[in-house]
Amino acid sequence: MSSRRDFFTGAAALVGAGLVSRAGAATLPEAPVMSTATTQPPPPPPNGRPYNPVVTLNGWSLPWRMNNGVKEFHLVAEPVVREIAPGMKANLWGYNGQSPGPTIEVVEGDRVRIFVTNRLPEHTSIHWHGQRLPNGMDGVTGLTQPGIQPGKTFVYEFVARRPGTFMYHPHADEMVQMAMGMMGFWVTHPKNPAQHRVDRDFVFLLNAYDIEPGSYTPRVNEMLDFNLWTFNSRAFPGIDTMNVRLNDRVRIRVGNLTMTNHPIHLHGHEFEVTGTDGGWTRPESRWPEVTTDVGVGQMRAIEFIANEPGDWAFHCHKSHHTMNAMGHDVPTLIGVDHRGVAEKISKLVPDYMVMGDKGGSMGDMEMALPDNTLPMMTGQGPFGGIEMGGMFTVLKVRKDQKPGDYKDPGWYKHPKGTVAYEWKGEPPAAVRSQSAGGQALPAAGKSPEVEVTVRKPKGHQGHH
Fold first, then answer.
1. Does residue 337 have a pLDDT over 90?
2. Residue 46: is its pLDDT beyond 50?
3. CA angle at residue 18 from 15 to 21, to 5 degrees?
4. Where residue 357 falls among pLDDT bands split at 50, 70, 90?
5. How confident is the model at residue 226 (pLDDT cuts 50, 70, 90)?
6. Average pLDDT value for residue range 101-129
7. Distance (Å, whole) CA 209 – CA 429
8. Distance CA 254, CA 63 (A)
9. What whole-number distance in Å separates Cα of residue 279 and Cα of residue 269?
10. With contact defined as beta carbons under 8 Å apart, do 376 and 225 qualify?
C-alpha cells in the first residue's frame, strides 16, 4: 500500500522538479494505491499551475507526474474491498484501491494524459462526464473506442478546456460496473486561483448499493430497491464529518451517479447553488436555498458562509436514504396490541422482540445481525442515538478551528441556555380560537360537531 504522501515523498527526485528522464518517459507513470477510507488532507500541488485543492470526503486526490509539460495520471480499474462503515465491508470494483476512485485535479488549460489499466475480468472504458474533448477520447465503448480488454492499458489525452466539476465512470457494461462502484470525481480549477476561491472545498459522490444482509457483493441487476445509500461509498456513522472554521466560505460539490434523485439538505445555514456540471452559475441567477435536488447524472456545487457555530446535520432528505439494510415489505403495526401474541411467541422464541407497535424508532435496542451487516439506524451523539444511517453526516463549525485544519474537533459545547429541555411544570392550557365566522373552534384533541354532505361524482359522460 502506498498513500498519496508516500508517493510524493518517495518520488520527490522524479516528480518534484517536474521532469522525467528519457527512460521514465517511455514507461507508465506510477499508479499509487490508497487503502484507508479516511479523508486525506489536501497537499498543495507540487508542480504545474497553482490551484486551491479540494478535500475528498473519505477519499483522496490522484498524484501525477509532469512529462514535457503534460500532466500524466495512471488509473487502474480493479476489484477492491471498501469498508462501508465499521462492521461491514463490500467487494466492489473501483480504481487504485478504492471505490469511488481518487479525485483528479487539474487546471484550466492543462494538457492531461491518463493511462487506464484494466485489471477487471471484463472489458471497460472511462467516460469523462461533462468534459469538452475530442470525440475519440469520450470513452464510449463501441461508439468512440474499442473496450479496454483485461490486462490492457489505454491512453486518453486532451486539454482541460473548461473549469468546473465533473465525474468519470465507465461506458462499458454500465449496469454492472457502475453498480459495483466504478466512478470518480474530476475537478478542473480556474487559471486564476483567486477566481471562485473558498476557504474549504469538499467533494463527494452519491452511491447506492443492493447488498443482501450477511453478503459482501452488490446485486448488480437491481434498478430501484437499493438498501445502502452512501456518500463516497461510506454510510453514516462511517462517514467523516466536514470540519470548518467559523465564518469560512465553504463549498460542497456533490455528484450523483445513482439511479434516483437526492434532495440534499443542510441544517442551520442557507446556501446558493454556484455550479453545475455544465459550469459556474452566474451570480445574478442564484437564490438562497436549504435543500437542492441533485438529479441522476448531475453535479451541484453549493456555497455558504459557515457563520453559525455548532454541529449541523447534512443529509439526503429522502428518509429511507438515511437508513441502512432496510426492509421494504415490513407492515405498519402502530397501534396494534401485541401483548398476547408476544407472550406466546416468546415461549417458542426466547429472544423475540415486539417491534413497530409504538413507532419505528430503534432507540438503544440491540439486535442480532448477520455478519457483515450494518444496523438500519446507528451512530451515537452527545445526547444519545442519532438514529441515522446512509447519506448523513455533520458539518462542524468551530471558532477555534485553524485554517487548513480538517481534524474532528469533537462534539459542540453548547452555551448555557441554548439546548432544548424538558418542561417540568404544568402543561399550558388549551386555547380556543375563533373561526372566520366568529364561532369557537374545538380545543385540541376534540372533533367539531359538523354535518357533512358527500356527493359522489357521476363521471364524465357527455363532457369532452
1. no
2. yes
3. 75
4. low
5. confident
6. 98
7. 50
8. 22
9. 24
10. no
Identify whether the C-beta of residue 104 lies closer than 8 Å to the C-beta of residue 168.
yes
Which grid coordinates belong to 110?
A: 492543462
Residues 6+ apart with CB under 8 A from 263: 291, 292, 293, 294, 316, 317, 318
- What band does 353 get if pLDDT is binned at 50, 70 and 90? low
Q: Residue 303's closest CA among 325, 324, 280, 336?
A: 280
- Which three three-digit cell numbers place residue 402? 485553524
Angle at 375 between CA 373 and CA 376, to 5 degrees: 120
Residue 14 phi, psi (nearest 5): -85, -45
- pLDDT grade, residue 17 (50/70/90)? very low
CA distance 247 to 290: 18
**Distance between CA atoms of 189 and 107, rounded to whole angstroms?**
5
* Alpha carbon distance 138, 161 (integer Å): 14
Residue 406 one-letter amino acid: Y
155, exposed or middle or buried, with CB in 10 Å at 0-12, 13-18, 19+?
exposed
Reduce the secondary structure of 233-287 to three states and give it as a string.
Answer: CECECCCCCEEEECCCEEEEEEEECCCCCEEEEECCCCEEEEEECCEECCHHHCC
| Start-end of H helices in 11-75 | 12-15, 22-25
The reported pTM is 0.83
Q: How far apart are alpha carbons 134 and 218 in whole angstroms? A: 34
Strands 299-305 and 272-276: antiparallel
Provide the pLDDT confidence category of residue 227 given band limits of 50, 70 and 90: confident
Q: What is the DSSP string of 413-426?
A: -PPTT-S-----SP
Looking at residue 151, its pLDDT comes to: 97
Distances (CA, A) of 9 to 46, 65, 187, 206, 351: 11, 13, 24, 32, 55
Residue with cell 380560537: 433
- Classify 11 as helix, strand or coil: coil
Distance CA 176, CA 122 (A): 11
The mean pLDDT of 324-328, rounded to a whole number, is: 60
Fill in the DSSP letter of residue 460: -
187, 131 contact by CB (below 8 A): no
